[in-house]
Task: inverse folding
């Protein structure tokens, strides 16, 4: 029997919390801290240091149990994200948000794919598109937290950023679905599209069934047996996630996200979300992000790869800024506000990492690119709040 | 990539809840339902039925991810059990509880070990003792719930049963530690005892450190950043569990139990316990008990094994009833009340299954005995509430 997973979990819990607190003090989201914890205690940093000084590599290593928890963790993270996505909010700033998000998805996707062709002559289209898809998704949570902090969430720019970031997430996931479909050997794009549409019809029917059942159940059950709600909700999430992959070839995380959105609109949605909050921060989220950090081995970090990282960061910032800014201008928004919106959409987060992780697991993204992608996410996340604060400050003094 | 674990988790969550509700309606604890769910949807029942009718074995199978979750599950269950054990309560009915518990541990241990020698001529002492150890632990939760239901928890007999059941758990775990130590090739019982004592000293020091740190932390931190408490507590639990196995050769579950007891006496103990309640019922407990049911394959259930099961059930009931009854009589308790106490201690539950599972994982208990042990646990659990209600009713009419 293997017991070292206990010590690994202990180190992961404490270190992600500790690094998370530090990154929050530095005005960065806790996700950055969790990633740093994995990088620091994993083979990338501590592994190299201990090998250098003691001739032995003493560090956290990705183990099967940690990987399994991370696998379940991403399902729960996307499920929670779905529960937090409010469809009604989307409808209000819908039109301009949609234009901004669309432009902010297309440009990074194209530029990311082009970049891969430029750097890797042997790459095939699905693999290149996968890296492009990584660049598409803005992190909702990070954007919102920054805007809240500087009290600009209620401005026009703030509202559009919020709507665009939410739509962006969904578009990014549709991108992922398309790319995943292509990667699994379905060269027939039409067939992939038919399966995606079939999936959305399936989700609609399943969602309606769940909703009607819960309305009835809530009426019969009342305020007792509250534990049954999260259990049924979780089982529903698992079922949709499984059906997405097995029956429609759509990524499981999209199924989990859809299940979350359905549950948030059904009775006791907030109660269920509250319960998953605990399971998420207490175990699954730290393990998921730390595990991504653990997968990075910087030994393979050549000068060529460092150069690639720099270009990747540049492309990811510029493509979002230009794409979203252009989208905003198309909606007749002033140049300054368009710039603010573009900046607000730069930061990446969970979804980018989840897509990258998915690509790695499907052997679509080479292991050596995970390091640069993580660094890109960290840098985008660090610069966004700083730039955003400045951009909003400028306006006040004008 | 493997996605079927999603469907498995969906079925496990729904079926354990459904069977749990049925067993509660039938006045039985939900644990019985969870076990039944695993038995029913696993290879033991559904697997046999589908093979019979369709020529294919369609059922839940134990997968690595489920096993890993179950492994983590038992740590969390024992951690929660530790948090619910109130040391102060034990002190009040301490003396008689201790006598009852001791007799109720020694007799089942001896009779269980003897039984194994009788039925299996090739068995060695540690393996026989392991089955004996399975018979030692009364289920606190089941006993308490039954007594609460018939409003007899506050009687003298009720108090002694409660104290004895708690002490019994701890004695049972000490038994397990001794047996585990012997099984791992440490023939030197003296050395095993020294390591156990060293472990308790270690736990004492670690507990004191934790307690002092938390008193300081709670003073500094106040009512904000509440998430840090369960995270630190969980990390502490993981560390003690790991140290128990790695440094002292004591079972990891005992470490988790000890960590739980320490945390319950420290600041925000109740808050931490509440958080683990969620993580436990929403994921880990159902998976753990269903997984035990999944491990059973009744195909190997020969007539000989059915006979063995019957004798095992008989021995487990009689040894507890006689042992605890005798212990109660030794404390000068009336014959009728001694009988009630003995009956109240008959039911087995989580700890018996956990010990059996541990034995299976250590290759100390043969796979074929798991079925009989589960059946024994289920029968003991079903008969206890029925007998107990009658025994208390008799008294009232007298």
Result:
């Amino acid at each position: 029997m293997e017991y070292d997973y206990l010590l690994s979990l202990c180190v992961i819990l404490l270190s992600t919390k500790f690094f998370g607190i530090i990154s929050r003090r530095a005005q960065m989201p806790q996700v950055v801290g969790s990633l740093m914890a994995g990088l620091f205690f994993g083979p990338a940093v501590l592994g190299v240091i201990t090998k250098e000084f003691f001739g032995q590599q003493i560090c956290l290593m990705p183990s099967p149990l940690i990987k399994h928890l991370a696998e379940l963790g991403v399902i729960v993270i996307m499920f929670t994200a779905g529960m937090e996505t409010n469809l009604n909010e989307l409808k209000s700033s819908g039109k301009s948000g949609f234009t901004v998000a669309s432009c902010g998805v297309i440009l990074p996707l194209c530029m990311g794919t082009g970049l891969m062709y430029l750097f890797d002559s042997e790459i095939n289209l699905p693999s290149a598109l996968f890296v492009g898809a990584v660049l598409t998704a803005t992190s909702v949570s990070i954007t919102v937290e920054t805007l809240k902090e500087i009290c600009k969430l209620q401005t026009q720019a703030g509202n559009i950023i919020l709507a665009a970031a939410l739509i962006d997430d969904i578009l990014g996931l549709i991108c992922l679905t398309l790319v995943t479909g292509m990667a699994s050997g379905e060269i027939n794009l039409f067939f992939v599209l038919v399966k995606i549409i079939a999936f959305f019809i399936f989700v609609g029917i399943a969602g309606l069934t769940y909703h009607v059942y819960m309305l009835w159940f809530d009426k019969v059950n009342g305020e007792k047996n509250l534990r049954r709600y999260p259990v049924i909700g979780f089982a529903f999430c698992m079922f949709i996630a499984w059906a997405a992959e097995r029956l429609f070839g759509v990524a499981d995380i999209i199924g989990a996200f859809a299940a979350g959105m359905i549950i948030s609109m059904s009775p006791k949605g907030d109660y269920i979300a509250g319960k998953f909050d605990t399971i998420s921060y207490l175990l699954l989220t730290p393990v998921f992000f730390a595990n991504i950090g653990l997968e990075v081995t910087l030994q393979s970090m050549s000068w060529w790869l460092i150069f690639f990282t720099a270009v990747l960061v540049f492309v990811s910032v510029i493509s979002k800024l230009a794409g979203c800014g252009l989208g905003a201008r198309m909606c007749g928004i002033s140049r300054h506000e368009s710039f603010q919106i573009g900046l607000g959409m730069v930061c990446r987060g969970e979804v980018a990492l989840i897509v990258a992780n998915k690509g790695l697991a499907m052997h679509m993204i080479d292991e050596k690119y995970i390091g640069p992608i993580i660094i890109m996410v960290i840098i985008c996340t660090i610069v966004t709040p700083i730039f955003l604060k400045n951009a909003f400050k400028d306006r006040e003094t004008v």
Remarks:
- Residues 112 and 118 of chain B are 10 Å apart (CA to CA).
